[in-house]
Design a protein that fits this description.
Blueprint (H helix, E strand, L loop, with lengths): L11 H8 L3 H10 L5 H12 L3 H16 L1
Helix pairs in contact: 3-4
Length: 69
Amino acid sequence: MTETIKGPASYFPSIEKKYGRPIAEWKALVRAAYPARHMELVAMLKEQHGMGHGHANAIVAHTLAEDKA
């Protein structure tokens, strides 16, 4: 039985398909913009890369959670 991906990572396949870059590259962009706050990072992805709010939020939330752990 395969486990269903939940949370922000569930958006990753559609993000890669729509924007043509692997998630690792998006996470690197987010990390390069540290120490910005969550919504500042979301706004950066939206404004500089044309990403939709949900996709940008998923990448930022997942990246921040990884780095907090």
